[in-house]
Design goal:
The structure holds two protein chains of two kinds. By secondary structure, chain A is mainly α. Chain A is built from 14 helices and four strands. Chain A has one domain. Chain B is 33% helix and 19% strand. Classes of the chains: A mainly alpha, B alpha/beta.
Chain lengths: 320, 433
């Protein structure tokens, strides 16, 4: 089944992309740099949302997919001297392979067990990074050399450390993933995922192979998160184990809950909101996490479906 | 990389600034405070130092004392006329002791606060995570970390560590004293992460050069909360246990080690990093009595303290026991925080040498810092004399070995600068500015 009018959602999403493009020319330097980072991390949140929002599988281990991309790309540049595109591809492939393996194993469970299994796998991944410290830099991490962070096209090259190039690269990745997400959730396959979330038994009874569909969703989710990690390593030049820690498994969950689970633009809004709350409040007090906590409680009380989820529920039912 | 082939939008017709001007004219955005760009008279405007502080997260105890020391140094500098006749202002941002946030904070200093330099980072992973952002913003970044990362020349030309020695140098300088005074057969116990690996990798060759040897290395996972099961791995012939456990578990570690050995223990040698901001007389630490520690700068006032050392301690506000004046329980991070004081004076010297006027002179500041070679002991360098290697952006200085006796740490040996020197591993000055 497809919506009668696909024009509105597509117009909205293209409008958001156009707005982000235009912002590149008007934002002050600091916010310009911050937004580039937010877009990359919003991709991480979009990958998370694919599984959590649409399939209803709450993972507490997505940091491992982000880190697979981060290390897959970063270490390829540092140790093998690979170029930016191949390193990026390496990160994405690492994430895809890891999510396939984790998916096959973790999908044997569901609910709380799925949360625990994913968290344990992520912890193993984190400890493996620390164990192979001579290759990964351990808890200190490693710098991706600045001269290597250049995208070459024949005679021209794009320096990824240039703020505009970085912003546009982040925007490109964000836009591609956003449009893919939109296409997926509006597709027949997307409807099956939502059906699994709503009632897996009934979906099975209707003849769908729910395991395969869920596995495909885990792979898609993990691969998108890895793309975000790979972009982070190449655009910001650092790979470190803190990105594989449990904190980075919780963060995308928070971003998605804030912005609105199962909304395509929610992850961006959640990431943006959280980043700015931390950025602004940390300027006033070292107890900024307390303020973040209070903001989260208020949001849960007044926007239980997240910002965009509530807007969709109350006013704009057509939001994807 | 051939810069001529680099596609740089700033060199094309349409720059962000041009577009901004055009859009601002129509949209009226230029009147919004955040969008106004203006140039500031630099003759009397303060020099702005961005202080990347660990106010929260695992480094918070250090961060608090780094802030106190920095405030004291800035007051002393301003009271004496500032830098190049301009007052110095410190802007603090919390990095949460997180490398991701650290990089954002460096970006914030560069593009929002528009500080002249960034300064003060301690934890190695935050330094390494922030260094790319500093290099890209061409922002001189003066860290007080003691990590070997700067001297390894794996970071970039904008990162300096001129106020505190690095851990490789510290370890190397300890070896002669350990071999001559504590014992020849050494067992190392260290946390199973980067800080421990520095000790794991640098101590054995340093001891070997002194005719001693490491006979066992015991790495303890950072998540461990009880250590008794590791102690049977300590070989019976061990003469010295070299321990560098850090974090909250250190009290348990010492207590369990005491229970394991009783009164008949090998010599103990440790790095004070494990007990920074911790009272040496805390219950459970009795077993350390008679053992030795490395200290960058002594926590307790010593009988032979120089006038400069006394003045520094008074300015920072620490008493003879190394605790905050008026609050004996608020123990300082004395072994490291002097680095903030000394680094700020190095920045002052380099800015004066460079005739620094503003951010357009940052490259000159880098070169002027690289040209420095020696820092004489005195009010600006109360910990002791230092040499500076401009190629690896790292200073070298004396180290203290202190003995725990009578509930305090007494300095029993001071190393020479030469004890900590090693062959440079690279040369930052070959990188373009």
């Amino acid at each position: 089944m497809k919506d009668a009018s696909p024009a509105k959602p597509y117009a909205l999403h293209l409008g958001v992309i156009a707005l982000l493009f235009a912002l590149s020319f008007v934002l002050p330097d600091y916010h310009h740099g911050l937004l580039a980072r937010i877009m990359v991390l919003a991709v991480f949140a979009m990958g998370y949302n694919m599984l959590f929002g649409y399939v209803g599988l709450l993972s507490l281990g997505h940091a491992m997919f982000f880190a697979a991309g981060l290390y897959g790309a970063g270490l390829a540049v540092i140790h093998l001297g690979w170029s930016v595109p191949t390193a990026f591809a390496s990160g994405v492939v690492c994430g895809a392979v890891l999510s396939l393996v984790i998916g096959v194993l973790a999908l044997r469970t569901s609910g709380v067990a799925f949360m625990i299994v994913t968290m344990m796998f992520a912890q193993v991944f984190y400890l493996v990074i620390l164990y192979f410290a001579s290759w990964t830099g351990g808890d200190q991490g490693m710098v991706v050399p600045q001269p290597a962070r250049v995208l070459t096209f024949g005679a021209t090259s794009l320096d990824l450390t240039n703020p505009i190039v970085r912003y546009m690269s982040a925007l490109t990745l964000f836009s591609v993933v956003l449009l893919i997400t939109l296409a997926v959730v509006r597709s027949r396959y997307g409807r099956v995922l939502v059906a699994i979330r709503e009632n897996e038994e009934r979906t099975k009874m209707l003849g769908y192979d729910t395991f395969s569909n869920k596995l495909a969703a885990v792979i898609m989710s993990g691969t998108i998160c890895a793309a975000s990690g790979a972009a982070y390593a190449l655009l910001f030049g650092y790979v470190g184990s803190s990105f594989a820690s449990v904190q980075y498994s919780i963060l995308p969950l928070l971003w998605v809950l804030l912005g609105g689970g199962a909304t395509t633009l929610g992850p961006l809004i959640g990431t943006l909101f959280m980043y700015y709350v931390v950025d602004i409040t940390s300027g006033y007090t070292s107890a900024y996490l307390l303020i973040v906590g209070i903001a989260l409680i208020l949001l849960v009380l007044f926007f239980p479906k997240g910002i965009l989820g509530t807007i969709r529920h109350r006013w704009l039912a057509w939001l994807p | 990389m051939d810069k001529s082939k680099t596609f740089d939008l700033s060199k094309t017709g349409l720059t962000r600034r041009t577009a901004l001007k055009g859009l601002a004219a129509g949209a009226g955005l230029a009147v919004a405070p955040g969008f106004v760009r203006y140039s500031q008279a630099q003759s009397s405007a303060p020099i702005k130092i961005g202080f990347q502080s660990h106010r929260t997260g695992i480094g918070a105890a250090y961060g608090r004392w780094y802030e106190k020391t920095t405030a004291a140094a800035i007051k002393a500098i301003n009271d004496a006329g500032g830098i190049n006749g301009r007052p110095v202002e410190v802007i603090i941002e919390d990095d949460g002791t997180d490398p991701g946030r650290g990089a954002e904070v460096v970006g914030k200093f560069a593009t929002q606060h528009k500080t002249d330099i960034v300064f003060g980072t301690l934890f190695s992973h935050v330094v390494i995570g922030s260094a790319p952002a500093a290099g890209e913003a061409k922002m001189p970044y003066f860290v007080v970390s003691e990590g070997h990362h700067v001297a390894s020349t794996k970071l970039n030309r904008y990162v300096f560590q001129p106020g505190i020695t690095d851990v490789k140098s510290q370890i190397q300088a300890m070896a002669p004293w350990i071999a001559a005074n504590a014992g020849k057969k050494v067992t190392q116990i260290f946390p199973d992460f980067a800080f421990g690996y520095d000790h794991r990798d640098y101590l054995p060759p340093a001891l070997k050069a002194q005719g001693a040897e490491v006979i066992a290395q015991i790495a303890i996972p950072p998540t461990e909360s009880s250590f008794t099961k590791y102690f049977p791995q300590i070989p019976a012939e061990t003469e010295v246990i070299y321990h560098v456990m850090v974090g909250p578990a250190v009290l348990t570690f010492v207590k369990e080690l005491g229970e394991f050995y009783g009164s008949n223990r090998p010599q103990l040698f440790g790095f004070i990093d494990s007990l920074e901001a911790t009272d040496i007389n805390s219950p459970g630490l009795e077993f350390l009595d008679g053992s030795h520690f490395w200290e960058g700068s002594p926590r307790y006032a010593q009988p032979d303290d120089s006038a400069a050392q006394k003045a520094y301690r008074a300015a920072v506000g620490i008493d003879d026991n190394g605790a905050a004046v008026g609050d004996p329980k608020d123990v300082s991070t004395a072994a490291h925080m002097f680095g903030c004081w000394e680094t700020l004076y190095v920045v002052k010297k380099a800015m004066e040498d460079a005739g620094y006027k503003g951010p357009e002179d940052r490259a000159k500041l880098v070169e002027a810092t690289e040209a420095l070679t020696e820092f004489a002991e005195g009010p600006e360098h109360p910990q002791g004399p230092k040499t500076f290697n401009g190629k690896i952006h790292q200073c070298f200085g004396i180290q203290n070995i202190s003995k725990v006796e009578g509930g305090r740490l007494n300095v029993v040996h001071k190393t020479k600068i030469e004890d900590g020197l090693y062959e440079p591993e690279g040369d930052y000055t070959t990188q373009s500015l």
